[in-house]
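Q: Here's a chain of 875 amino acids. Please give me its 3D structure as tokens.
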Amino acid sequence: MDCQETRAGVLREDLLHLLCRAEDFPLTLLLAPAGSGKSTLLSHFRASHNARAVAYYPIQPGDNDPQRFFRRLIECIRAQVSDFDFSWFNPLETSQAPVLVGERLAEALARIDSGLYLLLDDFQYIHQPSILEVIAALLEQLPSNVRLIISSRKHPGFALSRLKLDNQLLCIDQHDLRLSAAQIQQLNSHLGGPVLPENYIGNLLEMTEGWVAGVKLALLAYARTGTIALQRFNGSQPEIVDYFGHVVFKDLAPPLREFLLCSAIFESFNGPLCDNVLQRTDSALLLEQLAERQLFMLPVENQPGWFRYHALLHDFLSSRLAIEQQSLIALLHSRAAAYYMACGKQDQAMQHAQRSGDQPLFEQLLASSCAVWIPAGQFGEILKWVEPLAETTLLANPRLLVPLIGALTLSRRFHQARYYLETLKTLPPMANGQPLFEPLTEQFLWLNLQLFQHDQDFRLSQDCSALLAPGVHRGIRAVSLTIIAYHHLIDARLDTAIRFASQSKELLAQSGHSFFESYADLIIALCNRYAGRTSSARKEVYSDYQRTDQTSPAWVNRATAMVVSLYEQNQLSAAQQLCEDLMAVVNSSSATEAIATVYLTLSRLLHQRQQLVRASRLLEQLANILQLGNYARFVSQLAQEQIRQAYLSANQPALQALAQRYQLAERLAAGDWESARGYDECWERYGLATVYWLLARGAKVRAVRILKVLAESLRLSEVKTRALIIEANLLALNPQQQTKELQVRELRQLIAQYGISNFSRSLYDEAPGFGAELLRLNPEQLVDISDKYRESYAEFFLAERQPVKPSTDVARLLTDKESEVFNGLLNGLSNSQISAQTGAALSTTKWHLKNIYAKLNVANRTEAILSVQSRTVPN
């Protein structure tokens, strides 16, 4: 690479060569003041380096929050390493020790097949102790395939002594970043100035000490006014800043000067924003003039027309604005808040409203924002902005307290929600004698809390009918219908649940409650799954999923329903990829139903692919999450899956430990499954878990007895798929003295009773011997099984499963090599596994995948798989 100017700035080959030594050090620190060229150097490094993948994370001030920091870190790594297994550390487990999180992050990074550079730029914004402790713990066990580069204006905030003593640290500081005489001449040419005399270059080096920002300021002045500008420098950084403020800034025309000052209230800006807030009509023209002058105004990445000031200039302008026009600042922030609110950007509106110092305005806009966040399911935003308010403010403002109680409830912070509801009872009425809260609103909040906190123990009270009356606020009525539908789902009244969910969905769609509408969709999908009507709901689930923006909280619910549909149809690669996508976005504000479904399904898929450690780890993480509430039903699902996996793996120590944890022997001794009862999901799940445990101990007769009791109960319930699973277990455990003809007849009866479409993936997974029984019985005799079904479940009908291949119309679009790579993708292989199978380099495989995505008009693995499999969605 030759020494030329690039769009990112002047290329400094000597400095780039120094930074390339990071290959030999676990940690490289770029420590230098603002304007020293750190980000430019990193940009050139990213463009030139090909030995390892480079994950670049440009840190912003708002990233000083553990959940946001690690979410963005995951996104940056996954952008370069698509099969990065980030489940080894779990952002949902906020109670975890940072050291443990760091160790798990190191484990996850160690599983990346290729090398990786992890670049953390502008690390000075991170001072949250828990984040720093995680990074420190990560460095203690950083795998050899990963190199960490941190760029910061200050010391990163964790100990470096051990790394220094062990020669494991490369530090590049402001002295290394200083410009040389040749580079100053090169930068001057890049900025369009006349050639500098050699003596002036020497003087400039002496005065600026090679500081990039100072040199650039001087050269910009030189390009405009000649050598007199250089003579005014006295060589120290404060004087350079003083020069910028009192010479360059003063020389600007008044309109441009005023624009610079007033626009300093923004983190980023464009023409329309400045026109509205600064009340002018020429902002776009002024931005062009500023861009031409290169006054440290930078384009915002991926936002055409938006700019930001260099941090040094931004700080300077903010200080000058506070000195010269202090009285104007509050007004500007108020206008900015109103502008962003009108644009639907509530978070930016709240930031400016807060900075305006106008508390009534802040509370007014916050109440309006909550009215947007609640329907959209953005409960994290409510907690972020409303929770810090003083209790007296909250108790005096129902428009803030009601959303807060709802957000606390749906984020599983039940004790805090209950505290506020209990406090409401002690509040005096308003001056006009009216209660502060409408009784129905308070009743609705209690209903919401009691259901989600108590799960199966919740009982619907008679006075809930008041929430469904025609005159009740449409939002309260619609969400109440959703809550009641969920109550009927967990009590296995599936038809009733679907009826309430369908009513709520219609009302929610009319009122714009996208999150709760998607939650109603999830309830309907789960009801259809349990009722044995999955095939009739597939098209609707797919349609809902396709039309939902992936950045919306509603997407989590609809994607979870899609996971269920894909898994039950035995489209395991697509289901796993979608689970992986969901794992990156589910958080403490996601529905517990969605979290549990994603964790359980992904763990099951991983276990099937013999990734036993990760499968077990996911279940343990789910167990930690479920400790936050009274989730007996989800815990029973977890127990069944943990014991099923241990049984299939013949892991006797794990089986015994789990049996003790869930007290299976005590349940047996208490006679839990001696006789049939009304359907109870916990009772059924623990019963099936006990069956697995007994089979592992050789107690087949006792296991069959439990299955018969479960079958008797389930036959009378609406939960047909669970009944079929129990019946399939019984068929697989039939006494060996039964004739093959009798067993085939029993299988035919099951098909006739439940329908072949309900012989879904969960049946084969939860009735472990059933698939083998099909092979033994030679089901070619079973004329009721369609060719399409046989193809979907070929592993249970053929001695060897045929690999998945793309359809003919897709294959025609691809070259032979692309088809080979795509076959590997469809069969669930990672990029590195595809590379090994095809004999291509990892970078070549990624290049082929990029071409495949372009030809299929998709953006990622999930969409690529669905582009093939969606063609089979029934009409």
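Q: Can you summarize the key feature?
A: Confidence is low (pLDDT under 50) at residues 1-8, 233-237, 799-804, 870-875.
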